[in-house]
Design goal:
It comes from Amycolatopsis sacchari. By secondary structure, this protein is an all-alpha fold. Helix content is 77%, strand content 0%.
């Protein structure tokens, strides 16, 4: 099992402490993955608007979040 798969399984745990910790870890992993993909898209010449469209957010939101990277 991958880390993400294990975390997803733990997120459904009946013990809220276990589940919430897994949710927090998944959130951190997701943020890291998003940053990697945004950097990749920008390196390949994508506009902030194109990235925002794929993420389902506004251009301003994605630029504010990732523009300094």
């Amino acid at each position: 099992m991958t880390e993400a798969t294990e975390l997803a399984a733990r997120a459904g745990d009946r013990d809220p402490r276990v589940g919430l910790r897994a949710v927090a870890a998944l959130r951190r992993l997701l943020e890291q993955l998003e940053a990697v993909q945004v950097r990749s898209a920008r390196t390949q010449g994508w506009s902030w608007q194109e990235i925002a469209h794929e993420l389902g957010v506004s251009r301003q939101a994605v630029h504010k979040k990732h523009g300094g990277n």
